[in-house]
Design brief:
This protein folds into four domains: 95 residues, conserved putative lor/sdh protein from methanococcus maripaludis s2 fold, CATH 2.40.420; 85 residues, Elongation Factor Tu (Ef-tu), domain 3; 49 residues, RNA polymerase II/Efflux pump adaptor protein, barrel-sandwich hybrid domain (OB fold (Dihydrolipoamide Acetyltransferase, E2P), Beta Barrel), CATH 2.40.50.100; 123 residues. A hairpin with a 3-residue loop joins strand 19 and strand 20. By secondary structure, the chain is an alpha+beta fold. It has a six-stranded antiparallel barrel with strand order 4-11-14-13-12-15. The chain has a four-stranded mixed β-sheet with strand order 1-22-18-17, with no helix packed on it. It has a four-stranded antiparallel β-sheet with strand order 3-16-20-19, with no helix packed on it. Helix 2 packs antiparallel against helix 3. The relative contact order is 0.19. The protein is elongated.
Length: 417
C-alpha cells in the first residue's frame, strides 16, 4: 500500500546562509543606488594638491605692491598761455627755486598789460589830483582863518581907540559904530569859517582814507598786470629735479596747461594698491615690512585715498626708521601690510580653490584618502599664506587646495592613481 513521504525541513544553517546572501545583495544594490545619487568626479591624484588644517599663529597681514614716488612734487602749469619761445633747461636737470626754465611769448598779453598799465596810471593820477585838491582846500581855509583873525585884531585895536575919542566927541558916533559892526561881523565870520574848517577836515579825512584804499588796490592791480607779463618767464617754484618738461620750441600752450613737474628727491614715499576687500581694515599708522637687497625695512601708512578703481584703492606710506639707499623713482616694492595682531587659530592654507568657493566650502578627504566630500565651512581673516577657519574643520583635516573649476557641481571627488 502507498505510504506518505514526509518532506524534510531545511537545516537552520541553510536559512542563515540564505539570509546573509540576500542581505549582501540588498546592501550591494543600496550602494549602487546611493552612489548613483551622489555626483562624483574622478580626478587623478597626481593632478591634485592636498594640504592639512593646522593650528598656529595667524599673522593678519596682506601682500601689497607699491612703487617709489617723491614725497613732495610740484607741477608746472602755464599761468598765462603763449608760444614756447625758448627752453632754458633740459628735462631731468636739477634746478633751484627761482631758476628760469622756459620763456613764453604772447602778443595779446603784452597789449593787454600795456592798456591796463595806462588805465591804472590815469586812475592813480586822478586820485592824486583829488588828494591835492583836498589839501589845497585845507590850505585856503586855513589862510581865511588867519586873515579873519588878523582883521579882528586890527578892529579890536581901532575899537579901543575910537571908544575914547568918541567919549571925548573927537570922532563921530557913526564912525565908531561902523568899526564895532565890522568887528562883530568878522567874529561871526571866524566862527563860521572854523565850523566849515572842521567839516572840511572830517570830509577830507574820510576821502583820503578812501583814496588810500583805492590807490592800494590800483597798485595791486598794476603789480598783478605786470606779473602776468612776467609769468611768461616760467621759473622753478622749488628746488629739486625737473622730472618732466613736455614742451617744444614753437608749441602753443594754453592757460592752465601742464608744462612739467619738479620732484623733491631728498624724501620718498611708497604708493601702493590694496584690494578693496580690506577697505574697512586699513587705517593710518599701520605698519608694513619689505625686504630690499637682503635687508628688511619698515614703512607706515600716512594717507588713504577713498576712491576705489578696478577693485583696488590707493594708500601712501613713508619709511619708518632707516630708509633704504639708492632707491629710484618708479621702483617697485613688494610689502606685507599688517592689519592686526597675531592670534592662535585654525589655519587653512590658501590655494586656487579660494577663487572658486570664496572660502565658503571645501572638499575634505576621508581617512583613507580615496574620496573627498564637499563640506561647508565658515572662515574669517586671510593673509598671503593662510585663511582663518572659524567653523566646519578640525585640526588635521586634509583638503583639496587645487582648482575647483571642474568640481563646482560635484558632491564628492574620487582620487585615482
Amino acid at each position: 500500500m502507498d505510504r506518505v513521504i514526509e518532506k524534510k525541513k531545511r537545516p537552520l544553517w541553510q536559512w542563515a546562509l540564505l539570509f546573509l546572501a540576500l542581505s549582501a545583495a540588498a546592501f550591494w544594490v543600496y550602494g549602487l543606488l546611493s552612489d548613483a545619487s551622489i555626483r562624483t568626479f574622478r580626478l587623478p591624484s597626481q593632478q591634485t594638491s592636498i594640504a592639512s588644517v593646522s593650528y598656529g599663529a595667524f599673522e593678519d597681514v596682506t601682500p601689497i605692491r607699491g612703487s617709489i614716488q617723491p614725497l613732495n612734487s610740484v607741477y608746472l602749469d602755464a599761468v598765462d598761455g603763449g608760444v614756447v619761445e625758448e627752453v632754458l633747461v633740459e628735462e631731468g636737470s636739477f634746478v633751484v627755486a627761482g631758476q628760469p626754465l622756459l620763456q613764453l611769448s604772447n602778443t595779446d598779453l603784452r597789449l593787454n598789460v600795456a592798456r591796463n598799465d595806462t588805465s591804472i596810471t590815469e586812475q592813480l593820477n586822478n586820485l592824486s589830483n583829488i588828494s591835492n585838491g583836498l589839501e589845497t582846500t585845507k590850505l585856503n581855509t586855513d589862510r581865511q582863518v588867519i586873515e579873519i583873525e588878523y582883521r579882528i585884531i586890527v578892529l579890536e585895536r581901532q575899537e579901543q581907540r575910537l571908544q575914547q575919542l568918541a567919549s571925548d566927541s573927537l570922532v563921530s558916533k557913526e564912525q565908531y559904530e561902523s568899526v564895532v559892526d565890522e568887528l562883530t561881523y568878522q567874529r561871526k565870520l571866524l566862527a563860521n569859517t572854523r565850523s566849515r574848517q572842521v567839516l572840511e577836515d572830517r570830509i577830507r579825512k574820510d576821502r583820503m582814507e578812501q583814496i588810500a584804499l583805492q590807490v592800494t588796490k590800483l597798485e595791486e592791480n598794476l603789480e598783478l598786470s605786470q606779473s602776468s607779463f612776467e609769468n611768461l618767464l616760467v621759473r622753478a617754484p622749488i628746488s629739486g629735479q625737473l622730472t618732466s618738461l613736455s614742451v617744444e620750441v614753437g608749441e602753443n600752450k594754453t592757460r592752465g596747461q601742464r608744462l612739467g613737474q619738479i620732484d623733491v628727491i631728498e624724501q620718498f614715499k611708497i604708493v601702493a594698491q590694496v584690494d578693496e576687500y580690506y577697505v574697512t581694515r586699513v587705517a593710518n599708522d599701520q605698519s608694513a615690512r619689505f625686504v630690499l637687497a637682503g635687508q628688511q625695512y619698515q614703512a607706515r601708512v600716512i594717507k588713504i585715498y577713498p576712491e576705489i578703481t578696478d577693485g583696488t584703492f590707493t594708500i601712501d606710506l613713508v619709511f619708518d626708521g632707516v630708509s633704504p639707499e639708492n632707491i629710484r623713482r618708479g621702483q617697485t616694492l613688494q610689502l606685507d601690510l599688517t592689519l592686526g595682531s597675531s592670534v592662535e587659530s585654525l589655519l587653512l592654507p590658501l590655494g586656487s580653490y579660494i577663487q572658486d568657493t570664496g572660502g565658503n566650502w571645501v572638499f575634505v578627504l576621508d581617512s583613507d584618502g580615496n574620496f573627498a566630500s564637499r563640506r561647508n565651512i565658515r572662515t574669517g581673516r586671510r593673509n598671503n599664506r593662510f585663511i582663518e577657519v572659524v567653523d566646519g574643520l578640525s585640526q588635521g583635516d586634509r583638503i583639496i587646495t587645487s582648482s575647483y573649476s571642474q568640481l563646482m557641481e560635484m558632491d564628492r571627488v574620487q582620487l585615482n592613481e
